[in-house]
Amino acid sequence: MAGLSSLSRSGSDEREPAVGVAAADAGIRLRVAKSLLRFNTCGSVDDGKSTLIGRLLYDSKALFEDQLAALAADSKKVGTRPGEVDYALLLDGLTAEREQGITIDVAYRFFSTEKRNFIVADTPGHEQYTRNMVTGASTADLSVILVDARKGVLPQTKRHSFLVRLLGIRHVVLVVNKMDLVGYGQDVFARIEADYQAFAKELGLQDVICIPISAVRGDNVLERSPVTTWYQGPTLMELLERVAVDEARVREQPLRLPIQWVNRPNSDFRGFAGTLVAGRVRRGDSVRVQPGGRTSQVTRIATSAGDLEEAVAGQSITLTLADEIDISRGDLIVLVDQAAEVAGELEAMVVWMAETPLLPGHSFFMKVGTKTVTARVAALEYRVDINTLKKAEASQLALNEIGLCQLELDRPIAFDPYQVNRDTGGFIFIDRISNDTVGAGMLQGASSRSRNLHWQAVDVDKAARAALKGQKPCVLWFTGLSGAGKSSIANLVDKKLYRLKRHTYLLDGDNVRCGLNRDLGFSDADRVENLRRVAEVAKLMLDAGLIVSTAFISPFRAERAMARGLLAEGEFVEIFVDTPIAVAEQRDPKGLYRKARSGGLKNFTGIDSAYEPPEQPEIRIDTTATSANAAADIIVAHLQARGII
Amino acid sequence: MSTLSHLQRLESESIHILREVVAEAENPVMLYSIGKDSSVMLHLARKAFYPAIPPFPLLHVDTTWKFREMYLMRERMARESGMELIVHKNPEAVARNINPFTHGSAVHTDVWKTQGLKQALDQHGFDAAFGGARRDEEKSRAKERVFSFRTAQHRWDPKNQRPELWRLYNARKQRGESIRVFPLSNWTELDIWQYLYLEGVPIVPLYYSKVRPVVERNGALIMVDDDRMPLHPGEQPMMKKVRFRTLGCYPLTGAVESEAETLAEVIQEIALAHTSEREGRVIDHDQPSSMEAKKQEGYF
Questions:
Q1: Which of A242, A342, A523, A635: disulfide with A291, CB 3.0–4.6 Å?
Q2: Which of A100, A275, A368 to mutate to test binding with chain B, by most B CBs within 10 Å of its CB?
Q3: Catalytic one of A554, A598, A609, A627
Q4: Which residue, B110, B88, B87, is CA-closest to B98?
Q5: Could you read off the pLDDT of A480-498 as tens digits, one per residue?
């Protein structure tokens, strides 16, 4: 930068033009290579927050002479400190706010140093303005939380810190302001620092640094204070200049590209435009389009300055793919083996931002990334009391309240938990009539099953339906090799129960594959899916109060355990129809073993795909010693013994 | 690849905003004022939608009092971009020959620009209009949203703005309402100049210093761009080496004396400057909080 200062601003210089241009060019290239840090400030009206930002702007020489003159004039007219420059006036932009003497919205300010450029979101700290602070914090890499050295850590400091944690900001600076008013006392600072660090640890904040300053006097803001010789840490500006920006972290995550717009200028070009919100993408990468799941390869990363080999998080790009697949706004492009979660029932922390309270049952437009869906707030689990930070029961969320909600979407979306990625996990609620932004939320994950049961509870439940039928519902899960006799025995059991006037249903392997599971083949993955669907259907029928028999080979222990796990204790009766393969092959009622042996049938259980016998079935039937009818009697007797019928 | 630079992040954010509007608005338009900010905005739009031509027209709300070189640049950029250019001149202002000399800067600006803009938006049914305003320009801008809503009467309510979180912008609106969108919200003046330099974006030559005929009015150097400029008795234009930091109506735009003949030299001056760019604009000084009052009325 030395070359630049030798250039004068007025017309009377003696420089050589060529040198001047070269030096200016070098200066520009140095400046534009600087990084950008976004931060927000939290504190109450009295903590001197606006004064601190005014001081940062003033000391980093971000202000021009005419602005300084206006500031001096304003300070005389409406300043709060007679005879002194009131830095806070730089920030209170709107007339009405100036008259009230407080900042009531989010204002963005800009300044730079030799190392970095900064955007500050100035957000108010008064309790009723949670919404503004959340807004300002949503784009911040770092939060500056102010406390008055005379007052220390207050309930509002804790509220601000909770919001900072909620918004996933990874770096926090606790600025202990007005040190001049406590005689720059080391003990005062040490006490506040200890208080706050203990609280921050409890809250789960990671990188927390405390700095003693005086915004009015400038101590430890840019310049190291000559008075606080006991303080060895960085000045506020030193810290702001060196802290890591969030983008660097996000870049190391799996690729996430929410599609904004499909660029189709002519039939030869079909580009998918969007901002890379995580990871990186290279030409040739195999990608998946979520929530659908189709895959393709990246053929180009097109820009007006030529194609790129690679793009990284933060860049707005346009991709083309090798295949003509249907992709539209709102889809998410990911690497083929690093998919995002997909779900239609989600849990989220919601910050409510409207005057009319949020009530469970309400529906909204929900914008996540570039996708807009309809979401119903199915349940409000609890409200967070931001004064005590404890969970409180709640039937609604009022303006500026925060709570955990269960959401039901009109279709599944691809997402990441908010604490992993802000862009794929953060959302806004839009009122369907006024179109206002009424809430902001942070996805935590797919709803857990127990919670689903909880909020899907209906008045006529499983017990009521079963009582009407005079039985306990259960699933009789028959497993065994093909030709072992599962279907025959299950069919006999079903007939015997029918005669006993029991309400039953038989899910047969072949029948299910004719309809519900027609799209599935016999690969291991398809078999797993086949059984998952059967288990879910059996569960629904059980919920209807039925005794359900399922007759599937179900060769893998893991899948049978999955089915058992879906049900309550005692509802799953595993019946191992034990027939040696030689016997089953000899019976071969459908001629399948013959086909498999001749190579006409792949992945056949017992031949070229494994069967894992049950370790502890409820009932084991040895078909070499027991007839089908006798086996059915054994099973019915078992049900009677257990009080199921 | 190292961390994205400040300018790369700003560029990406602006492109994201441009694309969001095109994806969600029914009938967007870009306000094109021919100045340096408009030049950056147009350049970003061409990058955002490459290889397509930006899928919206350019709108110039003309006052007939712009510098002649601005009109040349306007035609050139419309040609090069391949975009449709709509020029709107308020017919009432044309009929009454509204001008800054007879009617004063306030009336001139209101009738030509504020009323003219509302007419053009209504006439074409635009529901979203891109503007090149930046938050660093002026205090009331600092609190304005990127997506700024206007009622069917084009009024701005600073107390009732939608919160903007993350990269999520809510572009939904009622019939008749419109959005002013500011893709350059987070850029500073220096960012604009440096970006123009690095990207080689063409700008009106008035930004570079040259010997030009000027007169001094109320402490500002006003360029005598054509013979509609009434001279005071005995007044003679002076030949001074000047350039402009902002461009608007020539009788309302003050020049600064400067030796900077190239963009690099201009940036060099800006980086060391001690006054803000808006100082050269006459309209800001009409009344306290004048920009905020104008914006509530519908000024961009």
A1: A342
A2: A275
A3: A554
A4: B110
A5: 999 999 999 999 999 999 9
